[in-house]
Amino acid sequence: NFKEAQEKKTWGNAMEEEIKSIQKNDTWELASLPNGHKAIGVKWMYKAKKNANGEIERYKARLVAKGYSQRAGIDYDEVFAPVARLETVRLIISLAAQNKWRIHQMDVKSAFLNGDLNEEVYIEQPQGFIIKGEEDKVLRLKKALYGLKQAPRAWNTRIEKYFKEKDFIKCPYEHALYIKTQNNDILIACLYVDDLIFTGNNPSMFEKFKMEMIKEFEMTYIGLMSYYLGIEVKQDDDGIFITQEAYAKEVLKKFKMDDSNPVCTPMECGTKLSKHEEGESIDPTIFKSLVGSLRYLTCIRPDILYAVRVVSRYM
């Protein structure tokens, strides 16, 4: 919580960085709360960002609005925003492997802060950063903030508009996939909220795209795609190899099966499952969590698809 985080320098620096990022982006302005309006509360969220090996890379503090107190039609209207499907990400990896292309990755710093708000929204001043002498005032949001119900849509609308201005064509069947062609060159960009991957056949197009994106959205160029949505990616001359080793180990540990014996067949042929009426009842939340975890693993493990499908019937 905030009190504990305040005492540690790493989290203190992370909070300072978040506030600087918000102020640099001109996200809010100090104002008096008008009659008939209610200020939405805010809270600090803390996360230690880890790499594929499970080592802490950086400490991230995020200021989040308590969106659950927002009222439909007053504080927000439309909230839907698309994200790329894992099948699309896999298809891009396959395409790059066949054509011997390299896939690059970028991350948007505080992505949701780039979204423009259409509604008039007021929030309370954040803990640790309340302005002295102005304690009774609130902050009027000019741009979206994490936690707001309309934040993902506002960000998606903003970046979609930018892509269209730069002559990208949006795929009609996958609304988070954008393609740009110049003569015989192609650039493919795929977006999952604030994580962007791109590939194509012309490195000079990459460089131009990279510089423009960094200038427009304050993005971080991560380099070659190596870890994306929990998928570990290895790109070399022999092809592109994907694995979810760290995630699989995490699932085994979570459900206390890390000491189990591995087998090649995830399910015996002809197995028929049925409800064991006399047996001990199972916690449905744990079962759903287990099946959901396995479903995410099927992204790169088609060998367990059938077994996962069978246990999914008993949700």
From TrEMBL:
The protein's name in its UniProt record: Reverse transcriptase
Leader sequence segment: none
Statement: the UniProt record of this protein carries the keyword Mitochondrion: no
UniProtKB keywords: Nucleotidyltransferase, RNA-directed DNA polymerase, Transferase
GO MF annotations in UniProt: RNA-directed DNA polymerase activity
Entries under Pfam families matching the protein: RVT_2
Reverse transcriptase Ty1/copia-type domain: residues covered: 25-268
